[in-house]
Amino acid sequence: MMEKKIITSEILGEKYYEIKHPTGLDIYVMPKENYSSAYALFGTKYGSIDTRFKRSDSDQWTEVPEGIAHFLEHKLFESEDLDAFTRYAETGASANAYTSFDKTCYLFQCSDRFSDSLRILLDFVQSPYFTPATVQKEQGIIGQEITMYYDVAGWMATFNLLRCLFVNHPVRIDIAGTVDSISQITDKLLYDCYNTFYNLHNMALVVVGNVDVDELIAVCDECLKPAQPLSIERAFDNEPREIAKDYCEYHLAMSVPYFAFGYKEACTKPVQSQRDFIEMSVLLDIIAGDTSPLYKKLYDDGLINDSFGKEYFVGYGYEAVVFEGESTDPQAVADAIRAEVARLKTDGIDPEIFECVRRSHYGREIMAYNDIDTVANSIITCVFNDWDVFESMDIYRDITVEDLENRLSSIMLEEYSALSVVKSE
Amino acid sequence: MKEYSKISIADGVEVVFVPADRFKTNEIKISFCLPLCRDMVSANALTVSLLAGSSAEYPDLTSINKRLAYLYGADLASSVKKIGENQVMSLSVSGLNDRFSLGDRISTECIDLLLSLVFRPHLDENGAFYASDIMREQRLLVEKLKSEENEKRTYSMRRLEEIMFSEEPFAINCYGTIDGAGAVTADDVMSSWQNMLHRARVRLVVVGTADENDVVDRLRSAFSSVDREYVAPLTAVFKPVAEKVTTHTDRQDVKQGKLVLGFRVNMLPDDSRTSAMRAFCDAFGGGPYSRLFANVREKMSLCYYCSARYDRYKSCIFIQCGCEEQNMDKAVAEILNQLEEMKKGNFATELTASRIGLSDAINSAEDDSGIMLNWYSNQITDDIIKSPHDSSAENDAVTADQVLDCAHLVTLDTIYKLCSTEVTE
User: Fold this and answer.
1) Residue numbers in A near B1 (CB within 8 A)
2) Between the CA atoms of B373, B374, B375 and B379, what dihedral angle is there, to the nearest 10 degrees?
3) ipTM score of the complex?
4) How many Å apart are CA B419 and CA B250, to the nearest integer?
């Protein structure tokens, strides 16, 4: 029996359908008036950090090589006859896929022949085809992809920071793995991971834009294969509070150094709430956003430029705060951030800046509903984190300075901070 | 609803209004097009960034940022780009649509902010730009140029341009040079600003529901005190055929090599066959259905990426590859081999896929407010504006014979290689 619910937001003037398909798949559809294209995202809650897991039908923990989720994403595009790109070439959809720390998503956007493209998406993601020969060929291509990032300063600075902050958690390893780790991947391991994580109960389909819900359900009825109920346990026990080291340097041919500076947080529960996420994002803007005294000081002192950014970096079993960008003096930036955090903990938050930042986040949240790809990706993030899609608007309305000051008092502790720098030798 | 309207308000100054009620934003961009010239290129790039960073009303970046935050997180950006042999400086504001703003006229406020930045800059009591503002912008521009060197894809493309077009203005980086940035004076900035107002082609593009007449009145009023001495955009130096192939290799401390090929295209920018040339380029090396993707990357695994781009304004095609040094010669040979296949007419499948894929992508562009803004802004040097519909209709009408003719109009001019200092052969 199929359950269909409509969820509406008056403020946004948007609504979406939440459909529990009998095969086990949860489907989310947001039709957008006057849009000519649609964006579809078929994702599994399976990313690069899922290297140790236990299925509900087994007593054994399984360990797999780093980079296997991303490897699987590449291989799924192939089949015994036509690969997915060749099939999409007939419908004209623009297709892609990505793997992050905690999810793998297959997507397409099109302005015509939506149902045909959706059939292709649902079919190839449900039809794995791996052989020793195709695995071996992919090891070469992915090896080149991994090597390419060794020359990207921002990427290297961020991952080196994660290696400073985290001792064991797989978030410290490049999403694509290493040349060594992917060499251990076999067709059998790919099937093991596929059969675990590509179960429809662990997946979601999100479609936003010019779409007819009934037509979409008809295609799902035709293409989805029923899945046995399965749950998956992820490891959450292996990461100490301490950091691995507080400084790291990597050398590349470059003129302006790039830095990533961050604090490892306590991560007392495996998954953070949407309120945690929003409050932290607002707090980071108050500390170092472009209306903050710290930003002005760093900018006027010539220590940052518009590459400067910050992020509440969070996922299953990891939590950190990261600042990054180009700077001629990364150490001075890190010192200034530490000093500003200490000052705010003592002096409290300026209510004027709080109001500015809150208003700005509120407006940007609404504006984000312009773009069908942004909305679809945001919905799948909410779904996999068990967050309510429209609740963020309420959270932005009722957060207070006191909430943020309470939060600030227990985070961003100096002994858990580290600096990663990429510069010329 | 008509797709757009164009209103001329002074010699070389026009407003392009793109009505769209599906977005939650109003997007506004003002662009100034001046001939690319070595003497003024750095000053022009610096000036537009300076205008975005302060004004008479908002004398520093923090006060502008607070204003933007107050306007529900409106986004202000400045940019510089090269269109053919013209330098185009732009300022844009993206703001929340009035219907979400609890009574504020955000669209009017955003246009006023944009016009105040352009027409009422931050000047001292003698009417000169502040040395401190110029020094800040010099630092930012130098860092921007240096960071281009950090990004190896961009860097290798710039190097190819310097080598291939050493006798043509197209060799000039749109941001100028590090030395040029350091030498910019207050008089240069004043000349640059005056040139933008008096001599440049100016186009203001609005995407959204802002009041068209109100926008036109405000821009007309702003230009009422400006004596225009309009200079039309330059037509790029046209070299129809490459006389010989130049190969250049740079060595740096990089982990993965970059290979860039520059081809001359024997077709002027306003030729009626340019849509066929775009289709040729796409079938040859654009999408995942192209000959280069299928053969050079997928079948032969010579490059991690290998894609072709047609620059209509400069009559050139560029192919960029991420490639190990030992594979570079093989990759060049295979790219030329694929060009020969195109010349023999072996592209039926690729062209069919390209025709569907390109038209689908162009039609999807209408659902992205930012893409729509750039779609119209980027045609600033064209006398006749084409909407996405016009463009997709032209693409649909391209025939295989026209594409075959195009294949014979392309000749290899320059091969640029960026390789590791550790020689692998």
Assistant:
1) none
2) 120
3) 0.90
4) 6
